[in-house]
Amino acid sequence: MSNSQMVMYDEEFKEINEVIERLLNDSNSKVIFLVDKNGQLISGVGETDRFDTTSLASLTAGNIAATGGLAKLIGEKEFSILFHEGENDNLHISIVGGRVILVVLFDNRSSLGLVRLRVKKASEELSVIFDRLTQKADERSKSGDSACPFAEITDDDIDSLFS
To answer: Residues 6 or more apart from 154 whose CB is under 8 A from it?
Structure first.
């Protein structure tokens, strides 16, 4: 995917939420976040009210960036899966399709094996959705239709709005 901003369409956003809600239930997790590599929260399901989602999203992206640096130092492209074990809660962090970061928070009601198994299936489904989003963006740019929803707004439009 290019470095440009991703445009999220309602249809794909609903599909993404369906996938991560199913993952939440199937893995018996507490909360799941989907974050872009720039640290922007795409979606979250489960007990999301307990968290500062902005901080969680940016720290997760920073964690991926830092471990990416470690990976390069030892000759790896990246570490696609990270696991943090806590006293009560655990974090499973994975890169989906090289595009987004899937964060799964779970406790002792689940296991790492179950989470990894369910994440693998969900990641495949999410990759298909993000491939489709990329394809839509490419088609829009080829047809001359800008991916930016504000591209057609001119300075005159803004001036007349505030006049």
So the answer is: none
Q: How far is CA 57 from CA 43, 63, 103, 109, 148, in A?
A: 10, 10, 9, 24, 23
Domain count, the chain: 1
Is residue 4 included in any domain, yes or no? Answer: no
Tokens of 79: 């570490």
Residue-range definition of the domain harbouring residue 64: 10-162
- Residue 3: its pLDDT value, please? 43
Q: Which residue numbers in the chain have pLDDT < 50?
A: 1-3, 147
Alpha-carbon distance 7 to 68, whole Å? 25
Tokens 């239930």 appear where?
25
Give long-range contacts, CB 8 A cutoff, 24+ apart: 64-72.
64/37, 64/93, 64/95, 64/101, 65/37
The CA-atom distances, in angstroms, between 97 and each of 38, 101, 108, 132 are 15, 9, 28, 12
